[in-house]
Amino acid sequence: MCPMRKLIAALATVGAVGAWSVGPAAAGETLDAVKARGELICGVNTGLPGFSLPDDKGHWTGIDADVCRGVAAAVLGDANKVKFVPLTAKERLTALQSGEIDILSRNTTWTHSRDTTMGVSFTGTTYYDGQGFLVRKALGVTSAKQLDGASICILSGTTTELNVADYFRTKGMKFSPVVFDNADQTSQGFESGRCDVLTSDQSQLYALRLKLSDPASAVVLPEVISKEPLGPSVRQGDDQWFSIVRWALFAQLNAEELGVTSANVDEKKASTDPNVRRLLGTDGDLGKQMGLTNEWAYNIVKQVGNYGEIFEKNLGKSSPLQIARGLNALWTQGGIQYAPPVR
């Protein structure tokens, strides 16, 4: 064999070994930092019911807060080891890019520009949403098509600014924007009469309506004018941390699909179902392959719950928002929430 052929053969052999050798992931920069600190730093909304909201004792509730608790449970074995950092829409991506936080879980829409030009990567979709309009019932408006010439309260630094401009332009209508820096200011502006309409993601509209002195005085119009997949994001460049945050959410989705809950997870560890056994770490080394313990998913479900549990508690019928699962139901139940298999 000529020297060149020997070299090609040697490289092919090395490539084959590399492609098929599977072992524990090398610790990434973010994982190392979180473990050394003993705490996950999570960027959240300054206060949005159902997503992230502190109570009078400083305890954070909401589905976005629970996403971070799931990551903490997976990485540190304790869902309570989270420091929540409230961020405005303008601050959120900068805080992640600069390393001020380890994960951003703040009702943030996954878009092309954010995912490709801002140094962040979205790890999944926690909530499939869409932009809508909140109006006073006294206006007698029943459709967004009747809003020509309206003044509209908008949160700055969000996709809602672009979406509403696109919608009115395509419909041949005009509007006057009234821009605010945070959700509370937007809600107050609407209630004080500074604008006729408040626009945001529909889930946020239901949450903001609860903050009005008379929630029954306002109604959400039926039109949904955009796609708003909301989910956590991490800094680009740390593939291991990306995988951990992504699979923390996927573990919760798979747990719901497999019928594993916070109440029965200990019993399920004795299951003969190979899918359940891999998820809970009874079989295999899937946790160690990510640099975690094999009980990473067990800790998430035990301490935080599966996806259905955190949805129901924070957004569903057991919450003040009373939001139907809709698109956020599992794919087996008519929705589009779907996670790759744990294997």
Share of helix, binned: 25-40%
Q: Can you tell me the residue ranges where pLDDT is under 50 for at least 5 consecutive residues? A: 1-26
Distance between the termini: 41 Å
- What is the averaged pLDDT score? 91
User: What does the overall shape look like?
Assistant: globular
Structural class: alpha/beta
Kindly report the name of the CATH homologous superfamily of one domain: Periplasmic binding protein-like II
CATH architecture of one domain: 3-Layer(aba) Sandwich
Number of helices: 13
The value of Rg in angstroms is 23 Å
- Proportion of β residues? 15-25%
Strand-and-helix sequence, N→C?
HHEEEHEHEHEEEEHEHEHEEEHHHHH
Strand order of the largest sheet: 10-9-11-8-12
Keywords: Signal, Transport
Protein name: Lysine-arginine-ornithine-binding periplasmic protein
Pfam families: SBP_bac_3
InterPro entries: Bact_solute-bind_prot3 (IPR051455), Solute-binding_3/MltF_N (IPR001638)
Description:
By secondary structure, the chain is of the alpha/beta class. It has a domain of 98 residues: D-Maltodextrin-Binding Protein, domain 2 (3-Layer(aba) Sandwich). 39% of the residues lie in helices and 16% in strands. The chain contains 13 helices and 14 strands. The strands form 5 sheets. It has a 5-stranded mixed sheet, with helices on both faces. Strands 4-1-5 form a 3-stranded parallel sheet. A two-stranded antiparallel ribbon has the order 2-3. Strand 2 and strand 3 form a beta hairpin. Helix 3 packs antiparallel against helix 12 and helix 9 crosses helix 12. It is globular. It starts with a helix and ends in a 29-residue tail after the last helix.
